[in-house]
Amino acid sequence: MSSDVRTIEWAGDGLRLLDQTLLPARVEYATVRDVDALVDAIRRLVVRGAPALGVAGAFGVAIVVRQAAREGWDDARRDAAIARVRAARPTAVNLAAGVDRVLPFIAEGVDAVVAEAQAVLDEDVRGNRAIGAFGADWILGRLGVDRPLRVLTHCNAGALATAGWGTALGVVRELHGRGRVELVYADETRPLLQGARLTAWELDQAGIPCVVQADAAAPSTILRGLADVAVIGADRIAANGDTANKIGSVGLALACAAAGIPLVVAAPWSTVDLAVPDGAAIPIEERPAEEVLAWGGARTAPGGVDAFNPAFDVTPARLVTALVTETGVLEVAAGTAPCRRARRRCRRE
Ligand code: MRU
14 vs 33, 78, 291, 320, CA distance in Å? Predict the structure, then answer.
């Protein structure tokens, strides 16, 4: 993605969002200035991806504080509106964490909230650069080959899903910058097509060779030896390393384990939730049935049939070869309770 396209930024009186529901057909921005518009934008995936949701949550508090002042709300009404933002989507812990991080600044006024939210955004971009470098180093060291690599990814964990550069796609961008990407297999990511619409768009803009494949093709691509490594993002990582990411990720993980190639999860520490012991305790968002039962607005499944539409799945820690964060790489499958221990260590350093 060219550097002048911004996914999310504070516009002085509201939050300016690149509307991801319209990509790649149209590059349009929407500015949200009240809580209803923000919650709607988060639920419809105008803004999406765990780190970008964290930034939206942080600025969302500023939106609510401004609206409360404008409309003369009392504190209880303001806090209820903040709670709505915090709960707009349940799986990505970054959203709640972004809200919680700026709450202490409300007492100092809206400018202080905006400044802290901007810090969340800036840290995310910096962290993603570090994730990219750590991830590329680890992958090249682990694979130990001289040729450019074939990388498989799922959903969109790129600049669009973050404040810039991307996590999984940050690793891909870094590998590409070093001349080490032959091809990216981008899973299309049913049912909302974040891979086909967003990842392919970002990679195309960056001049990184990619093909889009149906999600169902991915395990076969891996087992046929066509990919060297799979790199994905995460929405919430439990203390034991179990990782929630877009539905379909666990199938990749199983295929990677069967084929003996690494599954790399690239995510900032803000996605690690040490309060959640394991994947069973991660809330999994279930989305509207129409996303699965219809195509282009026309019903494809027979009338009267309902859908099961979980937006995320959980990959057990034993299948996560490496977790790449902004402070380094944890070889998750090789240890137990890795996140809690590693977080304590890097806080001490
Ligand atoms: O439903 P989405 O599009 O918000 O899901 C996004 C993902 O699953 C991403 O892989 C994850 O948030 C990591 S983004 C860096």
Answer: 5, 16, 29, 38
Distance 290 CA to ligand 1 centre (A): 20
Average pLDDT in the 40-61 region? 98
221-265 pLDDT, tens digit per residue, is 999 999 999 999 999 999 999 999 999 999 999 999 999 999 999
Ligand 1 centroid to Cα of residue 246, in Å, is 6
- How high is the mean pLDDT of the chain? 95
Categorise residue 244: left if φ over 0, alpha if ψ from -120 to 50, beta otherwise.
beta
What is the mean predicted confidence (pLDDT) over 79-103? 98
Q: What's the sign of the alpha-carbon dihedral 139, 212, 193, 118?
A: positive
Predicted confidence at residue 341, as pLDDT, reads 67
Distance 323 CA to ligand 1 centre (A): 16
Domains observed in the chain: 8-123 (1.20.120.420), 129-348 (3.40.50.10470)
Q: Which atom of ligand 1 is nearest to the CA of 169?
A: 15
**Residue 92 alpha carbon to ligand 1 centre in Å:** 8
Residue of 194, 236, 284, 314 to test ligand 1 pocket, by largest number of atoms within 8 Å of CB: 194
What amino acid positions are annotated as catalytic residues?
235
Query: Average pLDDT in the 1-12 region?
Result: 77
Atom of ligand 1 nearest to the CA of 53: 4
pLDDT of residue 31: 98
Taking residues 341-349, what's their average pLDDT?
64
Top mutation candidate among 246, 273, 286 for ligand 1, by most atoms within 8 Å of CB? 246
Q: How buried is 19 (Cβ within 10 angstroms: 0-12 exposed, 13-18 middle, 19+ buried)?
A: middle
Given this model, what pLDDT does residue 345 score?
64
Q: Ligand 1: which residue has its CA nearest to atom 15?
A: 157
Based on the number of CB atoms within 10 Å of its own CB, is 34 exposed (0-12), middle (13-18) or buried (19 or more)?
A: middle
